[in-house]
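Page 42, continued from yesterday. The earlier attempt failed because a stray header line got pasted into the input along with the sequence. Redoing it now with the clean sequence only.
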Amino acid sequence: MLEDGWKHRLNLKARDSEGRATILVRHYRDTVQTIHPNMDLEGLVSMFEHDRTHFGKMVASLLPVMNMLTSGTLGPLLSPDPNDIDDTRPITDSARIINQAQVAYIGLDSLSDGMVGSAIGSILLADLASVAGDRYNYGVDNRPVNIFVDEAAEVINDPCIQLLNKGRGAKFRLSIATQTFADFAARTGSEAKARQILGNVNNLIALRVMDAETQEYITDNLPKTRLKYIMRTQGVSTHSSNPAVFSGNIGERLMEEEGDLFAPQLLGQLPDLHYIAKLSGGRIVKGRLPVLRSKADEKPKSKKKS
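This time it went through. Structure tokens are written below.
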């Protein structure tokens, strides 16, 4: 509670909001901090006292995104009001979806607005990382959770890397999909960061890849193999002083040399649905994804006439 003297100072000397905030900060420092310090409040005070010019430069790129996420239809969608009786849409969060074994499909529409889609995706992944930390520390009998991130280069961030690295302890199964190695490098701004992302992936499944750098990355992770081939030789020789005297030879030799298990260039020639996979446990698989068809799509068998 403010003393009468502080109330009087607020009324007389602080007609604007900034002046009132300055006096309240001084009251907290002089009176409250020594008795009941509060870390959250001190964080707000530090932000308030930060140099405005420097703070404006720090949040210059953040403010447009925040405006997009809090205006229009996105505002009540991402930050719903639980007391609004006219809004009948259910309010949920990542922890509730996981605990109730529900399925959430979230379309970010990054093709229409990449900035907003990337921001929302990053927020969702950060929230999932927080839920994973809670399950890891306090969870009992956690059920497995499957998370699929398509076009992962659009939303990849540090919390997502933490999920790849430590999410297994919270029984999170994370699957990410992208086109090329360069997508991660361009998103993170560092080739080392891109390698860190892919280095935390336990299973690698590659369909047809046209990018040469990605082809090299995938095949470099495959073990070498021994290639056997037959070398055939033949020769004829004559005597220099007597050409009628000649000899000949013919032979075969089994040769062996080290080579690539799968050539990088062949990744660009894989047919549709064919893949190369390096799975946990050291298994290497060359396979084809099956095409699932319903019975309604099958053509009826024609009856043979007797």
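Notes: The mean pLDDT is 84.
Reminder to self: strip header lines before submitting.
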